[in-house]
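Subject — a protein and its fold
Encoding — discrete vocabulary of local shapes:
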Amino acid sequence: DLQICQHRAPTCCTKKMEESYLAAVRRERTQSIQALNFELKYMIVGHITAFQEAFESLLRFAENRTSSLLETAYRPMAKEAAEPVKELFTDITLYILGAETTVESAVLRFFDSLFPLVYSRLINPGITDLSEDYTECLRLTRQDINPFGHYSKNMVTELSKSLWASRMLSQALSLGIEVINTTEHAALSKECSRALVKMQYCPHCQGLTLIRPCVGYCLNVMRGCLASVSELDAQWREFISTLEYLTNEMAASHELEIALSGIWNSINEAILHAQLNGPQLSATVDKVCGQPKQQEGNLSSASIVPVKEVTETQTFVMAHTSLNNKRREFISYMKRSRTFYASIAERLCDGDLVMRDSSTCWNGEDVV
């Protein structure tokens, strides 16, 4: 009553043993594919973590630098500006990780929150009435009177160019993991399972427990079994090319590191621009939002303190170098995995599964 290991000679197998062999080949095939995938998956997961750590390090550095600027040059509003600064960098992090947000909305929301503080603490430091309505009016007016000149738009442009590649790379790496996980759990067809049993276990039914499959026979069986997986070859090669393009984009002229480290400078220039145009801004705001309550003997406008760009600190240089090195290592490894899905049958037939350098092997029917 055997269905797979039928043979003219006497056999020591039963139908129940064939069923055990079917379960064994399914389990073994999943384990062998997982073992092949392990190194590739380990490399991608490791680099997702490494990239994220480097991003976080750069973002923390840029956020601390921005907060220091406000503390040093714009002390009257530094404490109140801490929350908008934190929100800006949280939004940037979420954007890189693939959240449904845009760089433009994050930057403009930041400048909307900043304008009421710049107006009431630096341009007109005598204002005492910062009611919710008045603050909201200032936020909305910012969009119409553009107090920060071209600096807010420039910041959007610079960050959008550099953060886009980081966001795409982050999503691409997650997609790579998804593809690998899916191939690990691809179901084996009934024909494939039977062919594997015939190749690996039917010799046992003749008492030939030490004989192994011939190389050519193994390749034919594995290629048939993994036809759907090897079809991923063209898309996988394209995926590697896309990763290469994205890592090159990140390292190109609009570098993430430079854009992030320049945020504090863009904010500084924007505030200086607003202060220099203080009288005109005040006249427009008074017309739109009305005149707020002032302290007695209105204080003079806060003095403008231009901040010179500080030299790059060691932390930033280290994070910058670390990210560049990780990019190079990663893309070099991924390029070597271009043929991963094309050569999967060859790799599964390598090693202990087949008989090499021997005069006898199993061809599915007999020892040859």
Observations:
- The chain has a mean pLDDT of 85.
- The longest helix spans residues 15-73.
- The chain is about 70% helix and 0% strand.
- Residues 15-291+316-349 form one domain.
